[in-house]
């Protein structure tokens, strides 16, 4: 899942991004509304965590722009105000969910995951394919009832492949969904991660390389 965090309190923004990355999400961070508009014009995001009171361009205007573009991106709006009228106004602008500050990080993560599921074709909470079971919420992976410990990026790559339901996923698509925009697209990070993932998943191999196209399970 790829997420954009838009928050002018830099310490909070960076803390949220760090936490979401630990949950195997690809996260970009910006600190004002103008930068947010630039990012959504270039990258496809599953979820935007959007502070309402932003400098340069207000969060309301960013939300309106996402709606105007007809993007499948879901918006989780943040605000220091917990008034019902503010929540209603934010939702009427086109936000999909609303979370007042201060908030528990576990709740924010749960809401981001719930919104992320709404950007794709609905799938079971636990993904199963080729003897692999992956639980995105618990961040658990099993093969033939044996638990497998994966690093966050390995988990993210496996989740993208399993959500594709047998379709080929290119290296570029894996970069877009599992890494943030600071990753050099010309590195071999995808190939190395897939190799490590294959080894951890064991024999017989379940990740197939499709020459010139990408990978599939």
TrEMBL record:
Where, per the database record, does this protein carry 4-aspartylphosphate? 51
| UniProt DNA-binding residue ranges | 124-217
**Which InterPro entries does this chain map to?**
CheY-like_superfamily, OmpR/PhoB-type_DNA-bd, Sig_transdc_resp-reg_receiver, WalR-like, WH-like_DNA-bd_sf
Answer whether the UniProt record assigns the keyword DNA-binding to this protein.
yes
Q: Where is the Response regulatory domain?
A: 2-116
Report the residue ranges that make up the OmpR/PhoB-type domain in this protein: 124-217
Record keywords, A-Z: DNA-binding, Phosphoprotein
State one Pfam family annotation. Response_reg
User: Which PANTHER family does UniProt cross-reference here?
Assistant: REGULATOR OF RPOS (PTHR48111), TRANSCRIPTIONAL REGULATORY PROTEIN CUTR (PTHR48111:SF36)
What protein name applies here? Response regulator transcription factor
| Organism of provenance | Streptomyces xantholiticus
């Amino acid at each position: 899942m790829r997420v954009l965090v838009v928050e002018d309190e830099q310490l909070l923004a960076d803390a949220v991004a760090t936490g979401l990355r630990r949950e195997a999400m690809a996260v970009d961070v910006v600190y004002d509304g103008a930068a947010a508009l630039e990012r959504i014009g270039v990258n496809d995001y599953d979820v935007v965590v959007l502070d309402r009171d932003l400098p340069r361009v207000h969060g309301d205007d960013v939300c309106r722009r996402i709606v105007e573009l007809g993007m499948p991106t879901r918006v989780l709006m943040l605000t220091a105000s917990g008034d019902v009228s503010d929540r209603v106004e934010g939702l009427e602008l086109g936000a999909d969910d609303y979370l007042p500050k201060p908030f528990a990080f576990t709740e924010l993560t749960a809401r981001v995951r719930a919104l992320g599921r709404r950007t794709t074709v609905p799938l079971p909470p636990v993904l199963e394919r080729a003897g692999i079971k992956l639980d995105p919420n618990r961040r658990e992976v099993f093969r033939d009832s044996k638990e497998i410990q994966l690093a966050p990026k390995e988990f993210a790559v496996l989740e993208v492949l399993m959500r594709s339901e047998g379709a080929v996923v290119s290296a570029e698509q894996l970069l877009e969904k599992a890494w943030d925009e600071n990753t050099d697209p010309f590195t071999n990070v995808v190939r190395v991660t897939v190799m490590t993932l294959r080894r951890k998943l064991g024999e017989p191999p379940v990740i197939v390389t499709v020459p010139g196209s990408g990978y599939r399970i």
